[in-house]
Write a structure and sequence with these properties.
By secondary structure, the protein is of the alpha+beta class. The chain is built from 8 helices and 7 strands; from the N terminus they run αααβααββαβββαβα.
């Protein structure tokens, strides 16, 4: 595509150079005492060459317009490929790859602007039981609906990603730990109040509960470190009966209590 356009530009440039040279030569000749036929021949040559230049210019213009359209089409294709590479195909959420890239941007911003950054990790309770009882098609549908429900609860630059399996992550710029914990409680309650039913058979699935862990970014730490603390809080939610939220602040209290008992 670009090679073809370059050929048209080069050809058009060559014709213009030839035309410019011809005009310069004829300008010198017209200073001479020429007869009428000679002058007429020069004028006809100039007019003929100018028509060639005009056609070449028109062709070049068409080629540029066509190339611009092709480039725009290629850009859209590349954007689509990039979007697909960053998207979990089942749920339509962003994937771990995009999460990692987004974390880099948001953590740099948090350090630069001295703003908080928090993370929620969410796990669907007893998801294997759903798959075993109702099949993987229903399980996939539960994941899609769960993704949609979580996404409904966030706003602005907040980002929801599927972390893997039945786990989701919410990255929360400009949000301290207590704000993230309040949002996590809201998401948990949203799931508690939802009754699930199979669309194809009308069979009631019952309630789908989630456990959540919350952590806040510490300047300079990695995404793995931030997720690890949220995951520890999530584990405590599971240990304490599931269907609940645990923040890393509660995690510290739990460790302190365990040490006191020890």
């Amino acid at each position: 595509m670009l090679d073809t356009l370059l050929e048209h530009i080069t050809d058009s440039g060559s014709k213009m150079t030839r035309f410019t040279t011809m005009i310069r030569i004829y300008s010198e000749r017209l200073k001479e005492d020429l007869d009428t036929e000679s002058v007429q021949a020069i004028v006809e040559d100039i007019l003929s060459e100018s028509r060639v230049i005009r056609r070449s210019g028109q062709m070049l213009k068409k080629r540029i317009v066509l190339s611009t359209r092709e480039i725009e089409s290629l850009r859209k294709d590349l954007d689509k490929i990039r979007e697909e590479a960053d998207t979990d195909m089942l749920t339509g959420l962003k994937n771990r790859r995009f999460l990692a890239r987004q974390f880099e941007q948001e953590s740099e911003r948090a350090i630069r602007d001295h703003t908080p950054l928090s993370l929620i990790i969410i796990d669907i309770d007893h998801f294997k039981r759903i798959n075993d009882t109702h099949g993987h098609i229903v399980g996939d549908r539960v994941l899609k609906i769960a993704a949609s429900m979580i996404r409904e609860c966030v706003k602005g630059r907040d980002m929801v990603a599927r972390f893997g399996g039945e786990e989701f992550v919410v990255l929360l710029p400009d949000t301290p730990l207590n704000g993230a914990t309040i949002l996590a409680e809201h998401i948990c309650t949203y799931f508690k109040n939802m009754n699930w039913k199979r669309k194809d058979t009308g069979q009631t699935i019952g309630q789908v509960f989630i456990s959540l862990g919350v952590s806040e970014y510490r300047p300079g730490e990695s995404l793995d470190s931030l997720i690890h603390r949220a995951d520890e809080a999530l584990y405590l939610s599971k240990t304490n009966g599931r269907c609940r939220v645990t923040s890393e602040a509660s995690l510290k209290e739990s460790y302190a209590t365990a040490q006191d008992l020890g």
